[in-house]
Amino acid sequence: MQQDLAGLRAKWPHKLLVKGVLSARDAVRVMDAGADGIIVSNHGGRQLDRTPATLDVLPSVREAVGPEATVILDGGIRHGQDVIAAIASGADAAMAGRAYLYGLMAGGERGVERAIEILRMEYQRGLQLIGLDTTSKISRDHLQTASSTFAASHY
Ligand SMILES: Cc1cc2nc3c(=O)[nH]c(=O)nc-3n(C[C@H](O)[C@H](O)[C@H](O)COP(=O)(O)O)c2cc1C
Predict the structure, then answer these.
(1) Total-model pTM
(2) Nearest to 86 by CA among 47, 42, 135
(3) Whose CA is nearest to atom 6 of ligand 1?
(4) Is 90 a pocket residue for ligand 1 (Cβ < 6 Å)?
(5) Which CATH number do you get for residue 15?
(6) CA distance linking residue 45 with residue 72, whole number of Å
(7) Residue 100 belongs to what H/E stretch?
(8) Closest by CA position to 40, among listed 12, 68, 74, 70
């Protein structure tokens, strides 16, 4: 895998992101082979059941590759607030597959535009509800995980 990627890197002078990474170890290998960044993805979980949820592995991937690498979360984005959760967990951005396809099925091109509008509106409203006016202010402090809820209820 690393040799193939190094070959691609040698031929492609532009940004090179690798999609399908699901572990911190693979993320480091991909970056060592010369990629500019990573798309944390299980390709929508459509082939192999029981792959990890991308949101769950994202924090460890970000920690492994450091702040400079581009890290994009892919999979499971159904609501604008899912994008906020992705950014709070270490992503620079998020990608959606089925969310816009549902819009396409419902209303063609106009349906895709509407799906994107809805995601954007939910995202902006989500930011307002947590008291933020810009994406760059989203941080890990805005996450409430099951373990932090547990900790809060016990201490
Ligand atoms: C109908 C369909 C076809 C897809 N084909 C490909 C593909 O050929 N290659 C690929 O890397 N991912 C493919 N994907 C996965 C998407 O690129 C994306 O990773 C996934 O849909 C993200 O998850 P989400 O649907 O939960 O947003 C496909 C997804 C769907 C729904």
Answers:
(1) 0.92
(2) 135
(3) 43
(4) no
(5) 3.20.20.70
(6) 16
(7) helix 98-129
(8) 74
Phi first, then psi, for residue 63 (nearest 5°) are: -60, -40
Domain span at residue 83 reads 2-96
d(CA 22, CA 29): 12
Catalytic residue among 43, 79, 142, 154: 43
CA 128–ligand 1 middle distance (angstroms): 30
Please report whether residue 36 resides in a domain. Answer: yes
Tens digits of per-residue pLDDT, 85-127?
Answer: 999 999 999 999 999 999 999 999 999 999 999 999 999 999 9
Cα 28–chain centre separation: 17
Is 43 a catalytic site residue? Answer: yes
Do 34 and 54 meet the contact criterion of CB atoms below 8 Å apart?
no
**96 Cβ below 6 A of ligand 1:** yes
